[in-house]
Amino acid sequence: MAVSLNIVDTTPRDRALAADPSLAEAQRQQQQLREQVASQRSRLDELKSQSAVLGVQLDAARAELAAVTAEYERVHGLWVQAQAQIAEIKARLAELRAAIVALDRQLTQLAAEIRRNVADLEAREALLEQHLRDAYEQSQTSLLELLLAADSLDQASTQVGYLLTVSETDTRLAEEIRALRDMLQTKQKSLKEGRAALNEARIAAEEQQALLEQREAELEAMTGRLAELKAAADARRRAQEAALNATLANQASQAEALEHSIAEQAAMDRLVSQLRAQEAARQAALAEARRRAAAEEEARRRQGVVSPRGFRWPEAGFHITQEFGPTGFVLEPPYSYNGVYYPHFHTGLDMAAGCGTPIVAAATGVVAASGQPLAPWDSGFGVILDHGGGVQSWYWHMQARVVVSPGQPVTVGQVIGYEGSTGYSTGCHLHFAVNANGTWQNPRFYLP
């Protein structure tokens, strides 16, 4: 009877431990953790890619600074791009750090679950061990002796039932222990994998932070040099403007010339709108020109002649006589650029290589206009090329001989005219301009 009472007392403890986490739940947690680690590694790859792009841009900027002919506009553009890349890397680094914190929090929670599961497992194993010990002690008394010692048959049946119940309970408890061990093994594997990924991410974040600080230091060092380049560019521009104004002093009235230039600019803008409206009809010819030029353009690109946008310089052996942008040259008409109004603004690049120098197409396209497209406002000869996507290139003050005709496809580097001094000009030179969707752009952003 003492043995039977002991068995009855252990039964409620067994039921109290019956509600356990399942192996399926542990496997779900493992999959969720692996997905989070994969997402974190993806963000890390993006961060490394952004750092590589920034390195290339800074190397290009340093090369520009080292060159004797470094131009402020190009170096400043690279500097602005590098700043944007640094901001992007900072944002991605912040995302990576947030992911590290979240993963660390999840791993801490998983470790706590494992500790609770281990304690539960130890309790179940101890319970099973106690059951087995009791069963062993109880086995020292035979079933026959229990029957003979009982006061009645009903009492003997109850005692035998207790023995059978112990056997079923121990079997179920052993199955629960095996399931709990499998679940613990899965969670411990998840914890190990997660800790390895967390350590990898922390090391990578430290490396990227160090690289970012190095890039920021390099960018700061460039700022002083940019100021020097800007001062030199401003001085060169003032010298150009002074020379142009001195030439203009010997010609007709400045007021009349300015009025003429304003009217010419308006005519030019109207022609831009007209040519843009005709762009759809030229797409087929443009596609044919691009097909014919593909091989030649690729060869030139490999030689570094053509920029990533597909443009090259329209003359060889030239020197710049006037830059793009606001100017003190009173002949230039007013213009609003990037939302700022300027009383005098030069909408292109002026370059000179000598009267009769061949002028070539800066990029593959279709001739949108040639001859004297701005007559009667401007008697100058020129060519306008359509490159698709709303981008046009303008070539002005050419010699009177017309080389190409409207609708004709041309390839990059193909001769389209010769340097002259037609129209309102102070001497032989080429006015080269780029218009994108109705707005005049700095040609240097398109050229190599």
Describe this structure in words.
This protein is of the alpha+beta class and 448 residues long. The protein contains seven helices and 14 strands. It has helices spanning 2-16, 23-66, 72-138, 143-149, 153-249, 254-277, 279-302, and strands spanning 319-322, 325-326, 335-337, 340-342, 345-346, 349-352, 358-360, 365-371, 381-386, 391-398, 409-410, 415-418, 430-436, 439-441. Strands 1, 6, 8, 9, 10, 11, 13 and 14 form an eight-stranded antiparallel beta sheet that branches. A hairpin with a 2-residue loop joins β3 (335-337) and β4 (340-342).
Largest sheet, described in full? 8 strands, antiparallel
Coarse morphology: elongated
Radius of gyration: 42 Å
Write down the secondary-structure element order.
Answer: HHHHHHHEEEEEEEEEEEEEE
Mean pLDDT across every amino acid position = 76
The chain-level structural class is: alpha+beta
Task: Give the count of helical stretches.
Answer: 7
Strand content: 5-15%
State the total count of DSSP E strands: 14
Multimer state: single chain
N-C termini distance = 101 Å
Whole-number count of domains: 2
Uncertain stretches of 5 or more adjacent residues: 1-20
Q: Helical residue percent?
A: 55-70%
